[in-house]
Amino acid sequence: MPKIVHARVIVTSPGRNFVTLKIECDDGTTGVGDATLNGRELAVASYLAEHVVPCLIGREAHQIEDIWQYLYKGAYWRRGPVTMTAIAAVDMALWDIKGKIAGLPVYQLLGGAAREGCMVYAHANGTTIDDTIAAAKAAMDEGYLAVRLQCGVPGLPSTYGVAKHGERYEPADADLPSESVWSTSKYLRVVPELFRVAREELGWDVHLLHDIHHRLTPIEAGRLGRDLEPYRPFWLEDATPAENQDAFRLIRQHTTAPLAVGEIFNSVWDCKALIENQLIDYVRATVVHAGGITHMRRIAALADLYQVRTGSHGATDLSPICMAAALHFGLSIPNFGIQEHMPHTEETDRVFPHAYSFADGLMHPGDEPGLGVDIDEELASTHAYKRAFLPVNRLEDGTLWSW
């Protein structure tokens, strides 16, 4: 049985910050796991280096479940994004090691492929509706079958999901948190028009998604869902903060638009009531923030009982290691729904060489043993960490609001 003899935390910033855990066994096999928590990267790096890595040395790498339970129950202070991201990094790395030793891609160890590939959605954003439609058409030309639509809101200087002209969208944009301004009333006027124009211009053969980013009250979300119903949205994402899971019951009472939530969830307990009461249609928890492949399988198994599907977060603040893990996970489960896909920069891809690929609207993790992704440590060392915070949001009168 391979034993863990070394583990190290690698922080790099090829255009944005990433934290990686690399575990090495006594037979020379190595595995990598993503430990990136956007805006709080060094908290996870410290948690891993100071508290987790010392507990790994000498353990048998094949005992993934036992190590997961040890790190979760053994810490006493359970859950939370820092803890669960650290556990996820260990979990991914151990699945990577197990696959390499077995000579199989991880999805084969999870039961094999349940589909040909994982449908992914692109991001189309623009300052105006016309700009967004043009971006959506470009994504469709690239082969995407699903597109998330976000556009600027007239009267607001900036809008979530909309990049500055000619730039890639990266929300963690400043050394200290920048402050955005928000108006729910202005937003609610523009989104139905965006979807009306989108269906006229893009047709009905493409899935259209939209991210509210926790900014509405339940009744406001119900009103927006009802306004968008004629345009058949694939989902409305993060309609309202989900700390009160029962809030989604009120949204359900007012719209049949499918609901997705959970990119900030870190355990099954965050979505247990949402799933069991069938208050959502897609759970967006992701491998890196929800305890790794091991815990995501538990979430998916519970969701499957209630016909809830997965729709995992996949922005560029998740490294290619997490994207690979998400694809192995998504390919293997029966209730996969869709996977978010924001392509990384060429700079990032060089640091994290990977086997996954995109074609005809689907992504596949590849068939290399393990996760099929690695980190070029020498190249990573040339990209120094740069502190970057996510923004905060205020209403026009200065009230702090959900970003």
Automatic annotation (TrEMBL):
It holds the Pfam family MR_MLE_N. It catalyses: D-mannonate = 2-dehydro-3-deoxy-D-gluconate + H2O. Keywords: Carbohydrate metabolism, Lyase, Magnesium, Metal-binding. It comes from Sphingomonas desiccabilis. Its cofactor is Mg(2+). Belongs to the mandelate racemase/muconate lactonizing enzyme family. GalD subfamily. One of its GO terms (molecular function) is mannonate dehydratase activity. The keyword Cell division does not apply. It is an enzyme of class 4 (lyase). This is mannonate dehydratase. It comes from the Bacteria. Its EC number is 4.2.1.8. Coiled coil: none annotated. Catalyzes the dehydration of D-mannonate. Has no detectable activity with a panel of 70 other acid sugars (in vitro). The lineage of its organism: Bacteria, Pseudomonadati, Pseudomonadota, Alphaproteobacteria, Sphingomonadales. PROSITE patterns: MR_MLE_1. Residues 129-258 form the Mandelate racemase/muconate lactonizing enzyme C-terminal domain.
